[in-house]
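Preliminary data (for renewal application), adenosine-5'-triphosphate complex.
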Amino acid sequence: MQKTLVILKPDCMANKHAGSVIDRFEKAGFEIVGAKMIRLSSEVLRSHYAHVADKPFYPEIEAFMSSRPVIVVALQGDDVVAKIRELLGPTDSRKAAKGTIRGDFGTEMMKNVVHASDSDENARIELARFFKSDEIFA
Ligand SMILES: Nc1ncnc2c1ncn2[C@@H]1O[C@H](COP(=O)(O)OP(=O)(O)OP(=O)(O)O)[C@@H](O)[C@H]1O
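Predicted structure:
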């Protein structure tokens, strides 16, 4: 079955939305197969956000994402990659519809509550970045 990698970002943790967000994933039928709380290092963030590392806003993302510990979650289910992205809504929380996670809990472009892998291939890469194989219970 397909898996994806989700990060409950520092704004999600600071605003105490972790439980509500995980509840939405579970209510949508997805299963948690791995989870832990970690502080993201510069090194990990540089590889995770390599596709935006040359953008002028990158230093702000790095400071934000390392500002407090996050929860990384491995989720499993049918079509989980696309379905979780649908539950999140668009990257900019201000453009996200009510009823989506970013529309309900997000505040802006950077503080958008949750990261989720955007393809099956990236899900594999990102799961391997954050979890050892014996930390996934699938
Ligand atoms: N113009 C911007 N200003 C500030 N932060 C931005 C901007 N564009 C993107 N970001 C931040 O960088 C992250 C990665 O951007 P990307 O384009 O990959 O969006 P995404 O795939 O929806 O987000 P994520 O990878 O976190 O799920 C976004 O989630 C957001 O936090």
